[in-house]
């Protein structure tokens, strides 16, 4: 299961829960059951503006049990940690910051090669300019996503009429992508390409 599928699933579940909670609050708070004669089933949790969502018996049912409060606080802590983890994962998918690029100059005092930091957006612009020079490419946009240690290149190409996608991908892989990997030292740099023909639909290739 890909990350995008997981994100869509989590957002769908959260949306359904929020929608259900909002509908419950509207029905009870605005007294829609009586106004619109909805005929809600017996035992519906909230039908009257003056009625609490949970009855006193339901609110105090488990308070005397020793396991109640640890379970409540433990569940809330787990939910908060999962939400924080998901947020950090999403932030990690943003634009890459400074990328370490190998330098040809050797650090003789330490016997190792030194590195140089390059702005991710500057490198993306340079690669985009290189891609736009390919035959049959009328426009190109490149972004570097993910963590600086494991960046991912996202490219959007618009091809001129008569240019085949296979031909464009071959030129892209042998030219700009190969040069970008060689210049950054990221030999396993993953690339996701979205291709759109002029006045035509878009396609996606990983």
Outline:
The protein is an alpha+beta fold. The protein has six helices and six strands, in the order H-H-H-H-E-E-H-E-E-H-E-E.
Defining key terms:
206 residues, four-stranded mixed sheet, two-stranded antiparallel sheet, 45% helix
Radius of gyration: 28 Å
Strand count, sense and closure of the main sheet? Answer: 4 strands, mixed
How much strand? Answer: 15-25%
List unreliable stretches of 5+ residues: 108-114
- Secondary-structure class: alpha+beta
C-alpha geometry: elongated
State the helical fraction.
Answer: 40-55%
Report, as a whole number of angstroms, the end-to-end distance: 16 Å
According to DSSP, the number of beta strands is: 6
Mean pLDDT: 80
Query: From the structure provided, what is the oligomeric state, counting identical versus distinct chains?
Result: single chain
Q: Order of SSEs, N→C?
A: HHHHEEHEEHEE
The number of helices is 6
**Spatial strand arrangement across the major sheet:** 3-4-5-6
